[in-house]
Amino acid sequence: MKNDNKKRDRAGLTDKEKEKLREVLLENRERILDNARSGLELSMNRDTDLGRDSIDESTGEELLSTALRLRDREKKLLDKIEEALERLNEETINECEDCGGEIGFGRLLVRPVTTFCVDCKEDREVHEDMAEIGHRRAPFKE
Ligand SMILES: [Zn+2]
């Protein structure tokens, strides 16, 4: 076995930066879970409101599919956050999955779940999801 001198050719993150990223990731995770909870309450309220009269069947299906789609996206994002926390522990969070280059701290701060450097950004979709969830109060709004 070779010496276990870890790859340190990257600048690496300081402890302070890593702490900040962990904070951001945990905040985002909390926000998604909060959204999921309030979304659930909202859908239950709606059900009682709409259920008083005959509910249009297609409206009901639409609501359900929106709810499921959102839940699926939130779940994916939660997975991404867990992965990012893992990479943070392994100190590979700033390593581009594609080219192996360094992902800058500033970029990680804005997109902590990214696994690509700015040149390889293929995470646009995920990032948009996070931004959307972050700004939206009512997940079931069309
Ligand atoms: Zn790259």
Features:
mainly alpha, elongated, Four Helix Bundle (Hemerythrin (Met), subunit A), 4 helices, 0% strand, binds zinc ion, 142 residues, disordered N terminus
Low-confidence stretches: 1-9, 137-142
Number of helices: 4
CATH class: Mainly Alpha
How many strands?
0
CATH topology: Four Helix Bundle (Hemerythrin (Met), subunit A)
Decide which structural class fits the backbone: mainly alpha
Named once each, the bound ligands are: zinc ion
Q: Which percent range fits the helix content?
A: 55-70%
**Element pattern in H and E:** HHHH
Overall geometry comes to: elongated
CATH architectural group: Up-down Bundle
Separation of the first and last Cα atoms: 57 Å
User: CATH superfamily assignment?
Assistant: DksA, coiled-coil domain
Report the biggest beta sheet as strand number plus sense, adding barrel if it closes: none
C-alpha Rg, in Å?
19 Å
| Domain module tally | 1
Mean pLDDT: 77
Strand proportion, as a percent range, falls in under 5%
